[in-house]
Amino acid sequence: MSVRSGARGYILRAACIVAGGALVLTGCTKNSESNAPTVAKVQVNKVDSLASQLPDKVKQAGKLVVGVNLPYSPNEFKDPSTGKIVGFDVDLMDAVAATLGIKADYQQADFEKIIPSIQAGTYDLGMSSFTDNTDREKSVDFVDYFSAGSQWAQQVGKQIDPNNACGKKVAVERTTVQETDELPAKSKACTDAGKPKIDIVAFDDQAAAANALVLGQVDAFSADSPVTAYAVKQNKGKIETDGAIFSSAPYGWPIAKGSPLGPVLQAAVQHLMDDGDYLKICQNWGVEQGAITKSVTNGAKG
User: Which InterPro entries does this UniProt record tie to the protein (predicted)?
Assistant: First the structure.
């Protein structure tokens, strides 16, 4: 499951905040929008055979209208210096659009309103780190393009076992699946075995959780795998991934049920996977651990 409460949930804001009055953080991490990295765009060419398959509505408009909720670094967020929407998801969608000879028109929206707006025809698709799950597949179709799960991080050289963190302080972003499901279950296993509980330290955003780890105020943090990878990349030499990705599920672009746009998007992203551009985009953003080699429609696990 992705971090957004079993879907995509909540945000990655700037660091250096007071989280629940518990910790005043100093010495900010780089894991924030205010330190947006400069990432080169991967240039791709139009593929006429794919572009010709676009639905007439999209061909005539010359664009894909994409509903997006911000911020969620490194997937989609605003570059503070330019105000432009950037991120891994953005670069991939831009590459898909270029392959189809059109543009992507990003429209900001509340996360919970994106799927209803797709059903109403306001947006052609959504792009906000959506987890493709069976409940959502009842309402929309998904073109899957990435695999995300939970992953821990620790300070460099300090070994913390994600499956035996009894008595340790572990940071999470508030209201995420890591806070509501994963860590409570692991903590209960500790106490059931007569061991100390896990001290779950919840922050309003993941940047603050990463900062707490950098400063040694917690022993580890758990987050969505691309978020963890991004935090590690932004804080090289200070924190590192801890253990393998677990509870993985696909990220997908939601589209209207039965839409002819689905097969075209799937073919376009598969083209990028086959020619290596997809992997380059993943590597540019440090999220290559979640890269997949085959795009499918409605690939949720039951």
Answer: SBP_3_CS, Solute-binding_3/MltF_N
CB 13 within 8 A of CB 204: yes
Q: What is the pLDDT of residues 204-234, one digit of tens each?
A: 878 889 999 999 999 999 998 998 998 998 8
Write out 190-249 in H/E/C secondary structure: HHHCCCCCCEEEEECCHHHHHHHHHCCCCCEEEEEHHHHHHHHHHCCCCEEEEEEEEEEE
Phi and psi torsions of 222, nearest 5°: -125, 135
The span from the CA of 268 to the CA of 105, in Å, is 17
Q: What share of the chain is helix, strand, coil (3-state, %, to 5)?
A: 35, 25, 40
DSSP, collapsed to helix, strand or coil, labels residue 183 as helix
Tokens of 194: 């007569």
pLDDT band at 46 (very low <50, low <70, confident <90, very high): very high
Q: What is the mean pLDDT of the chain?
A: 88
d(CA 29, CA 159): 21
* Mean pLDDT, range 39-60, rounded to an integer: 96
Q: Spell 266-288 as b/e; 16+ CB within 10 A means b.
A: bbbbbbbbeeebbbbbbebbbbe
Please give the Cα distance from 215 to 221 (Å, whole number): 12
Rounded Cα distance, 17 and 289, in Å: 30
Q: What's this model's pTM, rounded to 2 decimal places?
A: 0.78
Query: For residue 43, with 0-12 CB atoms within 10 Å meaning exposed, 13-18 middle and 19 or more buried, which class applies?
Result: exposed
> Distance between CA atoms of 127 and 114, rounded to whole angstroms?
9
pLDDT at 72 over 90: no
Separation between Cα atoms, residue 134 and residue 92, nearest integer Å: 24
What's the whole-number mean pLDDT along residues 22-46?
62
